[in-house]
Design a protein that fits this description.
single chain, 413 residues, alpha/beta, Immunoglobulin-like, Rossmann fold, 2 domains, 5-stranded mixed β-sheet, 9 helices, 19 strands, 30% strand
Length: 413
């Protein structure tokens, strides 16, 4: 049997195969890669057969809901006395389970997540009545800011095929945003890939020879990426109101990046796609929601989805936001109302282009529930998800993901 190392706090070696006992009543739009049987896409009842790195003999097993992981006592769905065989084999009848995500706990030492029919998970948008008007007004104010774009050549990232540039432009409130750009030197119109960066991620530069017939643009929003200068925290900035919250400006930066890009003569407007992981997935979602010039998008382990349930599953980032708000004397209920203006599940219905989403079943940062609060609310007619069952949050380290993503986006490249 194949052994898989899960990226969880507890060291866990699992080889799993599981099967559903009924055929799903309708087709699903995603799959697991590889299929280890931890993601149940059909109707139950369910049985999980697995091999664990645990001492043989009797053991207690508990199944809890993900939405109670931050509670003093998680909600228990199942408790069972099981036996770990000499070779580590373990078979667990799970019975019928409601759509959603769960954590299995064996002897309080081994823990891993499973998912059940995630496309049936319900997390309704909770946008306020003035959500759309707020963002229309915000982007109208953005349009009044002169772009004043500057492109500084980067000789060390240029050759006879493409030229690299550091880009800077003005955005909402006069703040500076921009990024790293690589443009083919030969005349013509080119397909373009826009990449939005993760929270606090380090910028990188494009090999000018790697994609000589494509434009690449790595976007840095305000105070991050090439503008970070030692800063590490942004999510708790300006919490007093929707007008002052950090992401109001950052979301404008994501849109202004497209305005800059489409101002370039070399860009083929019919072949522009965007992608991002974590915060980059959120920025990509916002960009697609408010700019129909994007032909398709890829969002991996997307951030900023479903703040109320986010706080019930993992510690960060919502609890960090709460701590900052408490320190400023802000009311938590008022704060959560403010955050609805920046919740990806409220932007998702406005996204109509094709979307592919990847999620890590073991993600402790942007948990699967929050990913599907976005995915299940998308307005797109064409969408697909890919589960990497052993992945935590670091989707960028998963070799299985880029080929699937690139194949999905290839019609526009």
């Amino acid at each position: 049997m194949k052994r898989i190392l899960l990226p969880l706090a507890a060291a866990l070696l699992l080889t799993a195969c599981a099967q559903n006992e009924k055929t799903a009543p309708k087709p699903v739009t995603g799959y697991s890669e590889p299929d280890l049987g931890w993601l149940f896409l059909e109707e139950g009842p369910y049985t999980l057969s697995t091999t664990v790195a645990a001492a043989p003999g009797p053991a207690d097993l508990v199944l809890v809901t993900d939405l109670s992981l931050m509670a003093p006592e998680p909600d228990t769905v199942l408790t069972a006395s099981v036996t770990v065989e000499d070779d580590g084999a373990l078979e667990v009848p799970l019975g019928e389970l409601a759509p959603g995500f769960y954590q299995l706990r064996l002897r309080d030492t081994l823990r891993w997540n499973i998912g059940v029919r995630p496309e049936e998970l319900v997390s309704e948008p909770d946008a306020k009545d003035d959500f759309e008007e707020f963002w229309k007004q915000t982007f109208a104010e953005l349009a009044e800011v002169p772009m004043e774009a500057e492109m500084t050549p980067l000789p060390e990232w240029s050759n006879d095929l493409r030229t690299g540039y550091e880009v800077r432009f003005r955005s909402f409130g006069g703040a500076v945003a921009g990024g790293i750009l690589s443009v083919p030197n030969a005349p013509g119109k080119y397909p373009t890939v826009v990449q939005y960066m993760g929270y606090g991620a380090e910028p990188f530069y494009f090999d000018p020879s790697s994609a000589p017939d494509r434009i690449d643009f790595l976007v840095s929003v305000r105070d991050q990426g090439i503008f970070k200068a030692g800063q590490e925290r942004w999510i708790d900035r300006g919490l007093a109101s929707k007008e002052t919250f950090y992401y109001r400006g950052a979301f404008c930066d994501a849109k202004r990046a497209l305005d800059f890009l489409f101002s370039l003569d070399q860009v083929d407007p019919e072949r522009v796609v965007a992608m991002g992981e974590s915060q980059g997935g959120a920025l990509t979602t916002v960009a697609a929601a408010w700019d129909d010039r994007l032909q398709a998008i890829s969002i991996a382990v997307p951030f900023l989805g479903d703040y109320p349930d986010y706080a019930r599953i993992v510690e960060w980032p919502v609890h960090e936001v709460w701590a900052a708000a408490d320190g400023e004397g802000l009311d938590r209920a008022t704060l959560m109302d403010m955050l609805t203006y920046f919740d990806m599940k409220n932007f998702a219905p406005q996204v109509t282009c094709p979307v592919i989403m990847a999620f890590g079943l073991q993600d402790p940062t942007c948990p699967p529930h929050t990913n599907f609060s976005i995915y299940n609310n998308l307005g797109s007619k064409e969408k697909q998800f890919v589960c990497i069952p052993t992945c935590g949050h670091a989707m960028w380290l998963e070799a299985a993901w880029p080929p699937v993503r690139d194949a999905f986006l290839s019609p526009w490249q």
